[in-house]
Write a structure and sequence with these properties.
The chain has 253 residues and is mainly alpha-helical. It contains 13 helices and no strands. The longest helix has 15 residues, at 205-219. The chain is elongated, with a radius of gyration of 21 Å.
Length: 253
């Protein structure tokens, strides 16, 4: 759910050397090793071609190297192939094939792939809709400390959907786990839940504002305090309360 460029994210998660600027000479070394069959270098070559890092951008070549890296059991390559198929990056969109690549990555313990599988089963995209299977993948992702799975499962508990009984306390716990990992949407969701309170969740306006501030910082939707106009802190607090649907008069005298 975090809106990040999938290629950049995969490169960073997979610790690809191509997540940093690559010189043409360095690319030639990467390509040589990739042609020798080194799967990590095949993944590096894929990222270079997909992004034009150290070589002229060539999405078709990038996809070919990505497939080889995925077959070589590079989890992030399997995940990225799934994302390319979801979005039609260099290949025709195909949710059914995307699920297969995500399944390979999930089998290698990649929580982000477990999240994608949960999403597909929840929506019925590329697979028959199956809430139990969606919950199974989300929970596996939570066990692997994946923040997207924590957030997604928290939303379902908060709303009482996908066959779950409404459980605000469980939602709070999951939102908090994701938020402490820097998940912007979870920070907002946690703030909103604390701001209104619910069964098993004590209202805490002060903490709600802090999480709202953190979500705003991560999303870059609210100006930094030092760039805000005079009285910016007050404006910031009022803005956050407004996001949570709370009148400022309840907190500010």
């Amino acid at each position: 759910m975090q809106q990040m460029d999938p290629i950049k994210w995969a490169a960073e998660w997979g610790r690809s050397s191509a997540s940093q600027p690559i010189t043409p000479d360095r690319f030639e070394t990467i390509l040589f090793l990739a042609k020798m069959g080194a799967a990590p270098n095949q993944f590096d070559a894929a990222i270079c071609y997909l992004t034009g890092n150290g070589v002229r951008q060539n999405v078709g070549q990038g996809i070919e190297w990505l497939k080889l890296a995925a077959v070589g059991n590079i989890a992030s390559a399997n995940w990225l192939m799934g994302r390319c198929l979801q979005s039609g990056i260099g290949v025709p969109m195909n949710d059914k094939e995307a699920v297969a690549w995500f399944r390979h990555a999930a089998g290698q313990g990649m929580g982000a792939a477990m999240f994608q599988l949960g999403e597909h089963y929840l929506s019925g995209s590329g697979v028959p809709k199956d809430h139990e299977e969606a919950l199974r993948w989300y929970r596996l992702g939570v066990e692997n400390d994946d923040p997207d799975c924590q957030f997604a499962l928290g939303l379902l508990y908060e709303a009482g959907k996908a066959g779950l009984e409404k459980d605000a306390a469980q939602a709070e716990q999951l939102f908090r786990k994701a938020a402490t990992q820097g998940h912007a949407d979870a920070s907002f969701a946690l703030g909103a839940l604390l701001a209104k309170g619910d069964d098993g969740v004590k209202q805490n306006i002060e903490e709600a504002i802090l999480w709202g501030q953190e979500g705003s910082r991560l999303k870059k939707q609210i100006e930094k305090a030092n760039a805000a106009p005079k009285g910016g802190c007050l404006v910031l607090i009022i803005s956050i309360l407004g996001v949570f649907g709370i009148a400022a008069s309840k907190f500010i005298a």
